[in-house]
Structures are given as C-alpha cells and as structure tokens.
Design a protein that fits this description.
Distance between the termini: 25 Å
CATH topology of the largest domain: Chloramphenicol Acetyltransferase
Number of strands: 16
Shape: globular
Largest sheet: 7 strands, mixed
Oligomer: single chain
C-alpha cells in the first residue's frame, strides 16, 4: 500500500469547553486501542481516511487540544478542550507506518506458539501508536484523538489513540462504533453536523451542575467515604518502573459457566447460614442482601485473590494487609440517571474491597454442600471466591443516583482539580466486556475487527477483562483477560493460581 499520509483538512471550529470533575479523576494518559483487520489494500486506507474525516466533522473536538487553565470560578488546573493551533499540523490526525515483516495478532496461534513458528506477530509497541507520549513530558497542549494505520504483511492494525481525561474506555468504544459507521457509509447524514457535539457538551455540563446543586443543598460530610472515593492511577516523576509481565488468559464458556454455577450454589449455602444464624459473610451492616452474583463479580474476585496470593508468596512477611486492597472500576452510565449509554466522557467510579483470603471468609465457618462443590477448585478457595464476589456485588448495590450525586458534590468542592486522582491501587480490575468492537462492520474495504488489543498497561496489579467476541456457530463466547504483575509474582500467578489453571493453558505473553 503506497498511499501517502493524508494531510489534515480544515476542521470545523468549536467553542472551548471545560472537562468535568469526573474527567479529572483519571490520569492524563494518552491510551491506545489496537484494531486488527485482515485486509491491507489501498481501499482500506481510503475508507479509514473518509471515516475519520466524517467522524471529526461530527465531533470537531477530536481535532482539538487539551490544555490546563484556571476556570472563571477560580478553580486551578482545570482541563479545557480548545481548537488546535499547531498540534493538528505537527501530529497528523492519521499516521501511516509499514511493518512488512510482521503479521497481525492472532490469539489462537500466539497461545500455541512454539519456537518453530516463522511468523513474527505485531509487537504493538511504541512504533505502532500515534506519535503522542503516554504521559505529559512537559506542560503544554495535548491532542484529544489521533490514529495510526500500521500496514502488515497480512493485514493492518489501526491504533486508536485518545486522551483518557476526555474519554473513558466505554466512551472510546462508542467512538470506534461511530468510526465504523463512517467507514461503512461515509455519506450517512443521520444527524446534523452540530447535534452530536451539542449533546456531548450539554451532558458534560450536566455532570458538574448535578454536583454543584447537590453541594448547595447538603452540608459537607465530616468524613469522606473511602468506598465512594473516585481515583485513578497516575505516575510520579520519581517513580521507577518495576519489571512487569503482561499475560492474556482465555477461558472457555463452559469453564466459566461451571464456575458460576458452583459459586451461585455456595452463595445459597452462605445465605442459608445467614438465615439460620443471622450472620453476615461481610462485616458491613450497610451491605444489602444479594441473591445474585455475576460472572464479572466472580472473575474479578478470583483474579484479585490470586494476585494477592502470588505477591505474598514472593514476600517473607505475608501479613501486609495493605497489599490486599483492590478496586474495581464501575461504569456510572446505568447508575446516574442523567447520563445515557451514549455519553463519551469519563463516567466511572470505584468500589474498594479486601482480597485477603482470611478477611473475606464468613465467620463462623460455612460448609459447602456436596452438590455445590467444584470438580477442581478446593472448597476453601471456592468459598473465598464467592465471599469476595458477594462483597463486590453488595458494594455495587450501594452505588445509585443519590450516591453518585454526593460524590460529584464532593469533587466540585475541590479548588485544585489536579489533585483529583493520585492514588495508585494495589490491585485494579476494569471490565470492557460490554464493548461491541467485535460485532462492528467497517464496510466492504475493511470488514470486521479480528483482534482487539489494549496497549500494554504497565501498572502492577492491573487486570482488564476483554470485550466479548462474536460467537461462532451458535456457541457462547468465552472470556478473556489481561493481567499485569511484577515478574516474580507473575511466575507464582501462572504456576499456582486458580485463574491460570482454569484457562487450561490458553495463556499467551503479551509481547508489547
């Protein structure tokens, strides 16, 4: 493919606007998603350029820059999106790179990879992403959105880069949906050129307004709730990156269904004991009784427990309860009544839980009925998984519209918005299962995405549950996850963990 990079066309201007308090809870990182396609013709590049042009026409903020400023009400370090002055010319909206000796990622082949294989899979490293640094190197504007087309021997990898303070993962997933629509039908005129932008700005103002109204109508709490605290990891200037390993794990649908059946059975045993003895498995009377735990709850609990055990296995002093703290990212779109599912901005909170095996177990001990036992997981481990999953579900039930408004009020009271999110949790799980990337049609030139990969997340103790794949031949799709741990802990995680065992050797090292 010899088509040169397309120069940036004139972009429709827009009025600058401030990012929300929720946008400021996320570190100012520039993230990338990798979309792999099996075609690499010139028509593919034409379709991508047309799609991006149509997308930017609908949402001109994508060609804008993020700057820091002081808001009219005196808040410091508030991020604002402004029309780009120079960056749009310095960093093209769509870059192109050729990797003629690489082939597109293939999870099945990479799992089975042996030293005899001749293919060199796409490295998905810095050479594959738009020329924008992960973290700010110096003060100044940062782009909102950029892409890079990577042309490989057997297809192409499209890197979709976005400023995380502008979009969360769900919002970025929605952008990919919009891009697919524009690539498939460049002339689609479903909405007027200004309606999408107006709606997005209106919703962002609504987020801050909800916080301000709640702050005015209620007095400040003497102590802020730790469970509702909204934070995200950022990097400090003196932080030294440890040696990290990133692995992907793949689980058959039947394996996950069997685990959920067992955990649901254990949950009924726990609730029977509660009914008999009036004893709660989680020491928090505020937690409502739950009759249901989801597959996502169970996988989150399992990976957190295994990460804690892997870490403590490498430590001489394993009584460090602090390392047992985990957080799970929660999408607020279905919990905050004012936000629709189409909202692009950051709409996340967190729940905190303790993944120390002894802290999650019910007291007094509960016996698991024989009919609820798992064929390969020991009863004690199954009880730990279920009890932590239940704790997660109970905390999720506490996040509703009023609680979100209280959190927004707390954030809106802050005067320095650079201090919104600075805490790096010991373990963090984020589920992207709901992203619809594998079902998207990008049109006749590109077709459908065959592999979706996140940029390697170099945060120790981070797990990403991957988007659901399109089912084949009527079979249910399995589950996939990426786990990042320090190298020594990852060795124990792979050898001794239930999470790794259940994947039945469907494990691949993420080469990025």
């Amino acid at each position: 493919m010899t088509v040169p990079e397309t120069p940036n066309k004139s972009v429709r201007t827009f009025e600058p606007f401030y990012l929300t308090c929720l946008d400021h809870t996320v570190g100012p990182v520039f993230m990338n998603f990798f979309l792999s396609f099996r075609k690499n013709t010139e028509e593919c590049l034409i379709a991508i350029n047309q799609g991006v042009s149509g997308l930017v026409e609908r949402l001109p903020i994508l060609a804008g820059d993020v700057i820091q400023t002081t808001s009219p009400d005196g808040r410091k370090n508030v991020m604002q999106i402004v029309p780009s002055s120079t960056l749009i010319h310095e960093v093209p909206m769509v870059s192109i790179k050729h990797h003629p000796h690489h082939v597109i990622p293939n999870k099945n082949l990479q799992i089975k990879a042996t030293t005899s294989r001749t293919e060199k899979f796409a490295s998905l490293d810095d050479s594959y992403v738009p020329p924008v640094s992960l973290l700010p190197i110096s003060p100044g504007p940062r782009p909102v959105f950029r892409l890079q087309v990577n042309v490989l021997a057997d297809g192409l990898v499209l890197a979709v880069g976005f400023h995380h303070s502008v979009f969360d993962a769900t919002g970025a997933g929605r952008l990919i949906e919009k891009l697919a629509e524009r690539c498939r039908d460049p002339g689609s005129q479903n909405l007027t050129p200004t309606s999408e932008l107006k709606e997005e700005i209106y919703l962002r103002r609504l987020v801050d307004d909800a916080g301000m109204l709640t702050a005015r109508s209620s007095c400040r709490d003497k102590e802020e709730s730790q469970d509702c605290k909204i934070e995200a990891p950022t990097a400090e200037s003196d932080w030294v990156m440890p040696k990290l390993d990133v692995y992907s794990f793949h689980f058959a649908a039947a394996t996950i269904a069997q685990l959920k059946t067992a955990c649901s059975g254990v949950l009924s045993d726990l609730q029977s004991r509660q009914h008999d003895d009036d004893v709660r498995p989680v020491d928090d009377s505020r937690n409502p009784k739950q009759k249901f735990i989801s597959t996502n709850d169970i996988l989150t609990a399992l990976v957190a427990l295994d990460m804690y055990k892997a870490r403590t296995h490498q430590m001489k002093d394993a009584q460090t309860d602090k390392t047992a703290e985990m957080v799970m990212i929660v999408d607020l779109r279905k919990r905050f009544a004012s936000l629709p599912s189409t909202y692009l901005g950051n709409s996340v909170s967190i729940i905190r839980a303790n993944a120390h095996p002894h802290s999650v177990l019910p007291k007094p001990a509960v016996s698991i009925s024989k009919r609820h036992q798992h064929p390969t997981i020991a009863n004690a481990a199954l009880l730990e998984i279920t009890a932590l999953a239940l704790q997660i579900r109970q905390k999720l039930a506490l996040i509703d519209d009023p609680s979100v408004r209280r959190d927004l009020a707390r954030l809106m009271r802050k005067q320095d918005w650079s201090q919104m999110g600075t805490h790096l949790p010991n373990m963090m799980v984020s589920s992207w299962r709901q992203l619809k990337v594998y079902g998207l049609d990008f049109g006749p030139a590109l077709g459908q995405i065959v592999e979706f990969n996140p940029q390697a997340t170099l945060v120790d103790g981070f797990c990403i549950i991957q988007p659901e794949r399109a089912s084949e031949s009527g079979e249910k799709s399995g589950w996939e996850a990426y786990v990042t741990l320090q190298s020594d802990a990852m060795g124990s995680f792979l050898q001794n963990g239930t999470f790794s065992t259940l994947s039945q050797d469907k494990v691949a090292r993420y080469v990025s």
